[in-house]
Amino acid sequence: MSRVYNFSAGPAVLPEEVLREAQAEMLEYKDSGMSVMEMSHRSKAFQNIIDEAEADFRQLVKIPDHYKVLFLQGGASLQFAMIPMNLMKNRVADYIVTGQWAKKAYQEAQIYGKANKIASSEDKTFSYIPDCSDLPVSPEADYVYICENNTIYGTKFHKLPNTKGKLLVSDVSSCFLSEPIDIEKYGILYGGVQKNIGPAGMVIAVVREDLITDDVLPGTPTMMKYKIHADNGSMYNTPNCYDIYMCGKVFKWLKAMGGLEVMAQRNREKAAILYDFLDGSKLFKGTVVKGDRSLMNVPFVTGDKELDAKFVAEAKAAGLENLKGHRTVGGMRASIYNAMPKAGVEALVAFMKKFEEENS
Ligand SMILES: *Cc1c(COP(=O)(O)O)cnc(C)c1O
Which residues carry this modification: N6-(pyridoxal phosphate)lysine (predicted)? Predict the structure, then answer.
């Protein structure tokens, strides 16, 4: 067996300890006589798994009692529709467009009402976060929407926007559990788990209780009402049982690591190793405005497409995989989520140094 350092943006690296535990329980979970994949979601064994996963998540993030935690399907992309369907009472919402995912959410919302783009960084290929201290928030807006960490472009809101009293809705897919979260600043916070938590196929939505009502847009499918999932403990239909089980293991791993403060410190240290190198390099350049850099997704370029391709190929041969940038940006991108060890980032920087020496 030889595991590589996997810098994929998602589906992404998982903690090796978690994979080993799942491997040990593959044929028989505890003394159930079967694997978690074969188990009824109505069984006592599975109810314990989901209850523990939720309890550990709540403890890790310090979720207040008046917020529900929902394990949903359909990816982050289904939330682009579910959010307006459940929240657009006035059929108006404001969107801050800082990348492809925010743009997709903004476009989806236009199906259901008036979605206003109140700020954007598209003029400079989404390489920065706009000043959000005094935006033209619509008086009748039902919420203000952001994508907090822009997976493709490598920017992050280090300060939340001033929503002027409006509800804040945030997609945290690629920074979920990378640092402490102050939940009470949000109406809804959600993320696909395949970036920084678990296997692809599930979204965790944290929704303030008063926003969970039957007052949804006409025609909203049952499966797209937060209330149906909240009333049924995320088991109105068969949930993604195995994903809930895997995420539960990751929550325990994060708790054992010391929790989200410790993860934030580790993530800052890991990112600094890479950014410090980029800032001193003559060959490689970071593509993002310094103050807006993500700690999770680090895009960089050489400025020469052929050299970029050579780098990606040689890095792969050296056991450093998935460093190719998103198809819409080119260059390289290293995603260094919670489960990427510091040694992986150090190996990447050592390889970049060597490549720089050989190619300049
Ligand atoms: C990957 C990603 C998405 C899309 O996730 P799906 O689960 O594939 O729908 C949405 N938002 C962000 C920030 C992402 O990184």
Answer: 195
